[in-house]
Amino acid sequence: MSFWEYANPKRFMALSGASLPWLTALTALVLGVGLIWGFFFTPDDFRQGSTVKIIYIHVPSAFIAINAWLMMLVTSLVWLIRRHHVSVLAARAAAPIGLAMTAIGLITGAVWGQPMWGTWWEWDPRLTSFLILGLFYLGYIALWEAIDDADTAADLTSVLCIVGSVFAVLSRYAILFWNQGLHQGASLSLDKEENVHDVFAYPLWTCIIGFVLLFVTLVLLRTRTEIRARRVKALIARERMA
Amino acid sequence: MPDLGTYAVPVLSAYGATGVIIALLIWASWRRGRKVRQELHALEGRRKDA
Amino acid sequence: MIALLIRDLRLAIRTGGGFGLGLAFFLIIAVLVPFGVGPDSAILGRIAPGILWVGALLSCLLSLDRIFALDFEDGSLDLLATAPIPLEGLVGIKAVSHWLTTGLPLTLAAPVLALLLSLPEAAYPWLIASLLIGTPALSFIGAFGASLTVGIKRGGLLLSLLVLPLYVPTLIFGAETIRRGAEGLATATPLIMLGAITLGTLAVLPFASAAAIRVNLR
């Protein structure tokens, strides 16, 4: 059975319905373990004191915020090419989650930055690009809300997502050019030297996985709702014609 | 509660804000899901009767 | 295609909305900012590149929703879509027409407004160069946004939300060109990047815009 079988709404509903309880439990478990481990059982950092504990929510949320958009890009392409409704509805479902994660990333970043850098905000490349990402999410969601016809909305938002992605990459480089930043470089790559120390890294990875599970669970839940909402619209339209 | 020292306010605000946003997200998703589910149930019930 | 261009230009100038409005808005911004920021010419001079570019950007935004909306409402867009001219070409014409009636006049008016904002003398040629090269991108990106929102009633605000983030690269390189020019630094890099973005949008966005219009005409 190929992966595309799940593009069939009925199959998708069946599979997601069956797996959702398990996913929810797993999410709660992993996220709970990660956060409790990080918050209660890790030491303070030499330079950052207890604010290092913010890493367990800041990094995972930022990670999801960026990857949610990538997921939306892929599912939008799938919609445009193969016309699977489940795909584009999943993109629609993911957007508010991505936006929420962007908000969390920005807020936790600001709250962490104040005691550490002495400022709530800096126009540093990472923060700035992240803020622009939030605007892209807003535009995508707004466009869905503004259009009545479901398929038209699906097509237009997908085109927006793709064009937006190109400009997001362009903006990233433009912003790098515009300002060389103060935000720490990548600290979780496998070969970098300025890696986060192990004692922080393990709970951090647990939290990242927990956030990923949270994202998947919520996307499945919301996509089910979108599929049902689409059916509701179809039934109402049919009633009106009868 | 570990001793957060002078950074108690930032750390707790960060966790607090995150908790609120995620809770809102989950609650809103759940609520919309329930509403749509009930709507669909009602409509499909009407179809069966008709 | 030329006939189409002339028709659009005539419409824009005649109804008055597109043509004078953008310029007037640009002037207003150049006048309002000093009121907001204070009359210190040193400060104004430093932020002038940004103000001029943001002003140009916002002024372009004003007349964007008219590009397709008028034709959409009276059905001419349907006719044009089925005409022998490819829809991509039509989008290009509309964008060029928008540039001729908005971006180009802004570019020509900018040096005068730069006087109000105490832009350093060295920056003037770069002001004109960056606006000349960058404003076509604003029109083509704007046309893309307009094609997405053409079917939406009062979609002007949504259009702004969609288009403004797409303007960021052009804005950054455009303003940076002027700023570097003002300080006597090398302007080649941002200017080339600006040109590359403009050429890229000219080449690619008409296809995305045409696709969006086809979706909206279904």
Q: How would you concisely characterize the structure shown here?
A:
The complex is a heterotrimer of chains A (242), B (50) and C (218). By secondary structure, chain B is mainly alpha-helical. Helix content of chain B is 84%, strand content 0%.
Relevant terms:
heterotrimer, B: mainly alpha, rod-shaped, C: 218 residues, mainly alpha, 9 helices, 85% helix, elongated
List the helices and strands and how they pair.
The complex is a heterotrimer of chains A (242), B (50) and C (218).
Chain A: H1 9-40, H2 55-82, H3 85-117, H4 125-146, H5 150-178, H6 198-241
Helix pairs in contact in A: 1-6, 2-3, 2-5, 2-6, 3-4, 3-6, 4-5
Chain B: H1 8-49
Chain C: H1 2-14, H2 17-37, H3 41-62, H4 66-73, H5 76-82, H6 87-116, H7 124-149, H8 156-183, H9 188-217
Mean pLDDT of chain B: 91
Unreliable parts of chain B: none
**Can you summarize the main beta sheet of chain C?**
none
H/E element string of chain C? HHHHHHHHH
Explain this structure to me?
The complex is a heterotrimer of chains A (242), B (50) and C (218). With 242 residues, chain A is an all-alpha fold. Helix content of chain A is 78%, strand content 0%. Chain A has helices spanning 9-40, 55-82, 85-117, 125-146, 150-178, 198-241. The model of chain A is unreliable at 186-194 (pLDDT under 50). Chain B contains 1 helix and no strands. Chain C has helices at 2-14, 17-37, 41-62, 66-73, 76-82, 87-116, 124-149, 156-183, 188-217. In chain C, α3 (41-62) runs antiparallel to α8 (156-183). Chain C starts with a helix and ends with a helix.
